[in-house]
């Protein structure tokens, strides 16, 4: 397993490199944003540990560039800023997990293991519907290459609709797929989720078929990429 | 903030600008009108009386021209004016000599007097005799209780040693009536004018001060969080004030931002060295390493706590910010589901689209981020969040998880600073106490209970922005 460690503090870098090497990883180190971007762009890493406060280019920008260029390598961000707004910014840029400084080395190793296990799951092909793309491996969706934010229930709904593109799916079928158990389902659950997903992917992709259910179709003029 | 205002009132309401302007303008107008009224009626009265006295002088000249002495008698042939012939007509003349009692003894008189003698002035004929040839006017009561204006002139007739007094008199009730009529008319007109002026002043002040009221409302809107800054058009006189207020708001915002940046920088500066110390000590054995690790751990908790508090204090000042609740839950839910993907956490949330928190977005993120992160740590897989509109201006958010929950006797303890019940779950144990402090700084409430899913329920009440 090959890991890229991006951290500008020399002491912390030395400690983390040693700990990662002890745990059996091959570690490359970058001390600034420029170097980090270059390495992540050219070398095939299994995961990246990325500090957000970096010289030259900050961590969020590096991450955004990678994601825009289509790299889905799992990224764990390290941040000294514990404010939630900073974490949200990091996740919107494409992070997969966060760790707030200061942290225990064991915790970092545990998070890294979880991250690698997840991404190692069976590879599934990317789903598309016009400009809408769904990458089940990274559990990410995008419209025209712009990443969109989906909660897991919204993701599950969209995933199901994309698996059955062009078919009318009834509410019952959707709700059964959304919740595995008979939890407290509100009567309008499906409307709520369809409404939210429409807001995120554009209002016209999911069509309401009166009395029957919903159907996902590409927009007119959109070719299946 | 409100407490301070209650103890030390900096602004006290006294008087009203509008009433001050109205009283000044109205007072001056009324005074001017009263003076005008007095001068007008006096002038009219003087003119009317002078005209009457002119008529008396004409009569006097006529009578004096024809009066002669014949032996012991003073004779005046009838003057050819019809009014002096008809009894009690209101126009009279008489030639008299003063008697010993200070009254008059008539020597001859107009037919209109019949046998009535014109009375002497109350202070006697002395003044008249002292200035012979000069007219002297006085008022008296005549025949038939007529109010008379009388003119008296003392003259010496040829062939008579003792001077005689020529009297001409006219009924003045007619001109008195004129004066009364005129006064009534003048005062009524001036009264109407006065009312009109006061009303005009009233309207003028109200309309003129309207921009000030508008400014006051705009400032109140900013305070209530309905607006960020003052907008709208203001007259030249108060536009600078509005601009200054905006500059002050901007400055406030800037100070808060700067404080926040400082706080963030301090956090960043301290945290990396702490991480280094923790890692270094963690990899070694021995008393020194243990002590360093324990103390570094304490420092981390302290830094975190005090920085969070400083941030909360800096923010609670700003009340004109708003944040849509659903959007904040959405971004936190996607973040946490991804971060806790190993556990397959599912955050099912409901919030009306138009539910808006009245306060800083960052604070709502902080409150809900910590609550949801706690829920993620403890839940097995399901978390349910319901945000609803509560009382007017309030919203309520409920976070339920399906974890082990918290026994009632431990609920108070977790809100205290630094208490950490979650020894095995990662975190500083400060999450809930910081949330509690933030919620309180917004005048909200936080309650712990049992969720329907079986785990812990955290229920929040926060200020809502009403559209």
Structure at a glance:
With 225 residues, chain A is an alpha/beta fold. Helix content of chain A is 40%, strand content 20%.
Globally, the shape of chain A reads elongated
Q: Ends of chain A: how far apart? A: 32 Å
Number of strands of chain A: 11
What is the makeup of the main sheet of chain B? 5 strands, antiparallel
CATH superfamily of the largest domain in chain A: Response regulator
Would you tell me the overall average pLDDT of chain B?
84
Annotation keywords:
heterodimer; A: 225 residues; alpha/beta; Arc Repressor Mutant, subunit A; 2 domains; 5-stranded parallel beta sheet; B: 467 residues; alpha+beta; Beta-Lactamase; Heat Shock Protein 90; 3 domains; 5-stranded antiparallel beta sheet; 51% helix; disordered N terminus
Structure description:
The complex is a heterodimer of chains A (225) and B (467). Chain A is an alpha/beta fold and 225 residues long. Chain A has two domains: 2-119, Response regulator (Rossmann fold, 3-Layer(aba) Sandwich), CATH 3.40.50; 127-216, Orthogonal Bundle (Arc Repressor Mutant, subunit A). Chain A contains eight helices and eleven strands. Chain A has helices at 10-22, 33-42, 59-68, 84-93, 105-119, 152-163, 171-178, 189-201, and strands at 2-6, 26-30, 47-51, 75-79, 97-100, 127-129, 132-135, 140-143, 146-148, 206-209, 213-216. In chain A, the strands form three sheets. A five-stranded parallel β-sheet of chain A has the order 2-1-3-4-5, sandwiched between helices. In chain A, strands 6-7-8-9 form a four-stranded antiparallel β-sheet, with helices on one face. A two-stranded antiparallel ribbon of chain A has the order 10-11. In chain A, a hairpin with a 2-residue loop joins strand 6 (127-129) and strand 7. The two termini of chain A are 32 Å apart. The mean pLDDT of chain A is 85. Chain B is of the alpha+beta class and 467 residues long. Chain B folds into three domains: 67-171, Beta-Lactamase (2-Layer Sandwich), CATH 3.30.450; 226-317; 321-467, Heat Shock Protein 90 (2-Layer Sandwich), CATH 3.30.565. Chain B contains ten helices and 14 strands. Chain B has helices at residues 2-7, 17-66, 126-130, 173-224, 239-282, 287-316, 325-339, 361-378, 408-414, 431-441, and strands spanning 68-70, 73-75, 91-98, 104-109, 136-141, 147-155, 164-171, 322-324, 346-350, 356-358, 382-389, 394-401, 445-450, 456-463. A five-stranded antiparallel β-sheet of chain B has the order 4-3-7-6-5. In chain B, strands 9-11-12-14-13 form a five-stranded mixed β-sheet. Chain B is rod-shaped, with a radius of gyration of 51 Å. The two termini of chain B are 24 Å apart. Mean pLDDT of chain B is 84; it is low at 1-6 and 420-428. Chains A and B meet through helix 1, helix 4 and helix 5 of A and helix 5, helix 6, helix 7, strand 9 and helix 8 of B.
């Amino acid at each position: 397993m090959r890991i890229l460690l991006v951290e500008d503090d020399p002491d912390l870098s030395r400690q983390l490199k040693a700990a990662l090497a002890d745990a059996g990883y091959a570690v490359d180190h970058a001390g600034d944003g420029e170097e980090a971007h270059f390495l992540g762009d050219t070398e095939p890493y299994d995961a990246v540990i990325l500090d957000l406060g970096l010289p030259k280019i900050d961590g969020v920008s590096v991450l955004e560039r990678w994601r825009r260029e289509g790299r889905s390598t799992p990224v764990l961000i390290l941040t000294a800023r514990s404010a939630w707004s900073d974490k949200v910014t990091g996740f919107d840029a494409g992070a997969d997990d966060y760790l707030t400084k200061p942290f225990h080395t064991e915790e970092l190793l545990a998070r890294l293991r979880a991250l690698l296990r997840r991404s190692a799951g069976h590879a599934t092909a990317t789903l598309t519907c016009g400009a809408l793309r769904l990458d089940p491996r990274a559990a990410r969706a995008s419209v025209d290459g712009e990443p969109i934010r989906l909660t897991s229930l919204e993701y599950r709904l969209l995933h199901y609709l994309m698996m059955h593109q062009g078919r009318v799916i009834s509410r019952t079928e959707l709700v059964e797929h959304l919740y595995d158990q008979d939890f407290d389902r509100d009567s309008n659950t499906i409307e709520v989720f369809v409404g939210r997903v429409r807001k995120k992917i554009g209002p016209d992709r999911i069509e309401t078929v009166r009395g029957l259910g919903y159907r996902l179709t590409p927009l007119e003029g959109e070719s299946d990429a | 903030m409100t407490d301070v205002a209650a103890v030390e009132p900096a602004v006290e309401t006294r008087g009203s600008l509008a009433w001050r302007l109205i009283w000044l303008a109205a007072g001056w107008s009324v005074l001017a009108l009263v003076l005008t009224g007095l001068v007008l009626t006096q002038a009219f009265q003087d003119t009317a009386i002078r005209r009457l006295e002119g008529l008396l002088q004409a009569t006097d000249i006529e009578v004096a021209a024809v009066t002669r002495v014949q032996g012991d008698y003073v004779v005046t042939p009838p003057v050819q004016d019809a009014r002096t012939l008809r009894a009690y007509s209101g126009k009279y003349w008489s030639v008299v000599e003063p008697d010993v009692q200070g009254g008059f003894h008539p020597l001859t008189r107009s037919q209109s007097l019949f046998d009535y003698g014109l009375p002497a002035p109350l202070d006697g004929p002395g003044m008249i005799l002292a200035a012979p040839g000069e007219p002297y006017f006085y008022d008296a009561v005549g025949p038939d209780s007529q109010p008379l204006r009388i003119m008296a002139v003392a003259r010496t007739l040829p062939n008579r040693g003792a001077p005689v007094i020529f009297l001409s008199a006219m009924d003045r009730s007619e001109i008195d009536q004129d004066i009364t009529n005129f006064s009534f008319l003048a005062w009524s007109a001036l009264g109407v004018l006065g009312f009109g002026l006061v009303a005009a002043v009233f309207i003028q002040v109200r309309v003129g001060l309207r921009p000030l009221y508008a400014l006051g409302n705009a400032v109140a809107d900013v305070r209530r969080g309905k607006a960020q800054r003052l907008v709208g058009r203001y007259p030249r006189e108060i536009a600078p004030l509005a601009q200054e207020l905006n500059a002050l708001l901007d400055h406030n915002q800037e100070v808060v931002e700067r404080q926040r940046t400082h706080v963030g920088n301090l956090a960043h500066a301290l945290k990396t060295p702490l991480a280094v110390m923790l890692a270094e000590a963690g990899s070694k054995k021995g008393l020194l390493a243990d002590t360093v690790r324990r103390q570094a751990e304490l420092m981390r908790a302290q830094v975190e706590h005090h920085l969070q508090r400083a941030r909360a204090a800096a923010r609670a000042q700003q009340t004109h910010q708003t944040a849509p609740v659903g959007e904040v839950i959405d971004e936190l839910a996607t973040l946490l589901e991804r971060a806790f993907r190993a556990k397959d956490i599912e955050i099912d949330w409901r919030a009306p689209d138009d539910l808006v928190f009245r306060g800083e977005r960052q604070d709502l993120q902080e409150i809900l981020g910590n609550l949801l992160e706690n829920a993620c740590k403890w839940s097995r897989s399901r978390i349910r969040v319901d945000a609803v509109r509560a009382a007017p201006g309030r919203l309520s958010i409920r976070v339920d998880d399906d974890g082990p929950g918290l026994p009632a006797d431990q609920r108070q303890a977790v809100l205290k600073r630094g208490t950490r019940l979650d020894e095995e779950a990662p975190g500083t144990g400060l999450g809930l106490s910081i949330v509690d402090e933030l919620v309180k700084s917004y005048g909200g409430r936080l309650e712990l209970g049992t969720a329907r899913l079986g785990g812990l329920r955290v229920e929040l009440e926060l200020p809502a922005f009403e559209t």
